[in-house]
Design a protein that fits this description.
Strand content: 25-35%
Keywords: Chaperone, Copper, Cytoplasm, Metal-binding
Strand order of the largest sheet: 2-3-1-4
Bound molecules: dioxo(di-mu-sulfide)dimolybdenum
Subcellular location: Cytoplasm
Protein name: Copper chaperone CopZ
Shape: globular
CATH class: Alpha Beta
Distance between the termini: 24 Å
Structural class: alpha+beta
CATH topology: Alpha-Beta Plaits
CATH architecture: 2-Layer Sandwich
Pfam families: HMA (PF00403)
Number of strands: 4
Main location: cytoplasm
Order of helices and strands: EHEEHE
Length: 68
C-alpha cells in the first residue's frame, strides 16, 4: 500500500470535497481518500500495481480542478 498527497487548486466547498473524493475512490486500486479543504489536498491510499498517480491527477482534472 502506497500513500500520496495530491495538491489541488479550486476546491472550496463541501461539494468539491465529495466530487474529488468520489472520483478518486472510483479508480480501481484506490482504497482511501481524505480531502483537506483548508489545505487544498487529497491524501490517497492506493495499490501502485493497480493505479498510477497520473491516473489520479486525470480523475481530479476531469472534475474541473487543477493539480498543482
Ligand atoms: Mo462549491 Mo466547488 O459551490 O467547485 S462545488 S466551490
Amino acid at each position: 500500500m502506497e500513500q500520496t498527497t495530491l495538491k489541488i487548486d479550486g476546491m472550496t466547498c463541501g461539494h468539491c470535497k465529495s466530487a474529488v473524493t468520489t472520483a478518486l475512490k472510483e479508480l480501481e486500486g484506490v482504497s482511501g481518500v481524505e480531502v483537506n479543504l483548508e489545505e487544498g489536498t487529497a491524501t490517497v491510499s492506493y495499490d501502485d500495481s493497480s493505479v498510477s498517480v497520473s491516473a489520479m491527477n486525470e480523475a481530479v482534472e476531469e472534475q474541473g480542478y487543477d493539480i498543482k
